[in-house]
Amino acid sequence: MRSHGWGGNTPASDEEAIERILNAADAIIAARGSSMRIADVARELAVTRQTVYRYFPSTDALLMACAMRSADGFLDQLAGHLRGYREPAAAMVEGVAFTIEALAHDDTIEFLFNQRGRGGLVPSITSDTARAFGRALLHRLDVDWDAYGYDDLALDRLAEFGLRSIHSLLLDPGSPPHQGAELRDFLSQWLGPAAAGLPSRSSRRTG
């Protein structure tokens, strides 16, 4: 742990340093969005850019760390909101609607869906990170997926479909924007039937 900088209040451990870097990055993102740079964080903490690079090798790595920390908290909120939803269609519709409404005001987590690489390329919504988020979302629900015929592959496909729905509605909410009860009606009509459940594995084998 380096002893200079940090505004005269040196972190006691690497873990505390990381926490303070993430907190500073979160504050900057809240103020100006994901245009945050390593230099901005270093200036906020009164340290050199090299100090921040010691823990995060790039701005994208720091943004992703912020996004994943925020996502963990968001998934806990989602699980609480959806407690008691045990039917796949209803759970998916409300889960996707809640996620869209929450992420519309959260630049940190939205980075998981809308980040652009430094070369100007848009990462795939089916990246490993996005897929992990989608699977975590499904597993936080009270749905007995196996009872509705979902195996791991089917869950991955449902997660991808949900992610694509979230991504599309975040990028273009519609005109006028889909929101509230109307958003849920829209999702119920199109997403609901896709999530309603699959034939049991035994019936698929004999059908």
Automatic annotation (TrEMBL):
Coiled coil: none annotated. It comes from Mycolicibacterium iranicum (Mycobacterium iranicum). Residues 37-56 bind DNA. It holds the Pfam family TetR_N. The keyword Nucleotide-binding does not apply. This is AcrR family transcriptional regulator. GO terms for molecular function: DNA-binding transcription factor activity; transcription cis-regulatory region binding. Gene3D superfamilies: Tetracycline Repressor, domain 2. Keywords: DNA-binding, Transcription, Transcription regulation.
